[in-house]
Amino acid sequence: MKTYRKILLAVDFADHLKVVVDRAQSLTELYQADLTVLHVVEYIPLSEPVYGSVLPLDIDLTEQLAQAARKRLHTITKRLNLPDTALRVEIGSPKSEIIRVAEESKADLIVLGSHGRHGIALLLGSTATSVLHHATCDVLAVKLKT
Ligand code: AMP
User: Fold this and answer.
1) Reported pTM
2) Which of 45, 78, 138, 146 is deepest in the core (most CB within 10 A)?
């Protein structure tokens, strides 16, 4: 029977977070696997060379969001009794960062929600669809009703 050694859980802090986290935790226990919890902060450009400066601010908003994400992820890893090394925050496109981190960490299973903060207009959300198409390992899209 196929067993999983390294599970990558992708979280977006949407309402259904607990359902997806609990599923990943059960699988981690079942397979005695290593679990990494990832959140990707989407890059927010404060200036765009083509248009000049958009905002007259000299702050790195993206880095502040990454720090806030680290704090929120820490509450999850703490609840799951995971070491700090199990927590990852990346900046970029969620679709490609989830794939990149999965390959880099040699994950053999990615767990994510069937939908995220962008609602349930589609059968599968766009992040879930893209990860399912591009991942080189198994992907579990936990079916979320709302
Ligand atoms: P979506 O396809 O965007 O509706 O999201 C589906 C699932 O992808 C979510 O339930 C999360 O598990 C994961 N996901 C979406 N956005 C992110 C993100 N920024 N960082 C990590 N995981 C994400």
Assistant:
1) 0.89
2) 138
